[in-house]
Design goal:
Elements (H helix, E strand, L loop, with lengths): L1 H8 L10 H25 L10 H24 L10
Helix pairs in contact: 2-3
Length: 88
């Protein structure tokens, strides 16, 4: 969990490098938290049939999108690639 919180502190840092462990812990905890929000939306009856998600899960995805782009760019830098590769 410390890796996840540390990454959120650097939520808009696109320069530098991200270790493999940092990236995958972010993916793991982000997936677990998103799954919990989806379950809360379903149990609470907030799930939208057309959108497929509820308000909590959508807000979480919006809140984590910038840190996700940042850590992916830093991970690509660590693999000797440009951060722009994630747009392909």
């Amino acid at each position: 969990m410390n890796w996840y919180l540390e990454l959120l502190k650097k939520y808009a840092v696109f320069r530098g490098r991200a270790r493999l462990k940092e990236y995958w812990y972010f993916v793991l905890f982000s997936t677990l938290i998103y799954s919990a929000f989806v379950m809360i939306d379903r149990v609470g009856g907030f799930r939208d049939v057309i959108m497929g998600s509820g308000p909590l899960s959508i807000l979480y995805l919006l809140a984590v999108s910038l840190p996700e782009f940042a850590v992916t760019a830093r991970r690509l830098h660590d693999a000797s690639h440009s951060g722009w590769w994630q747009l392909m």
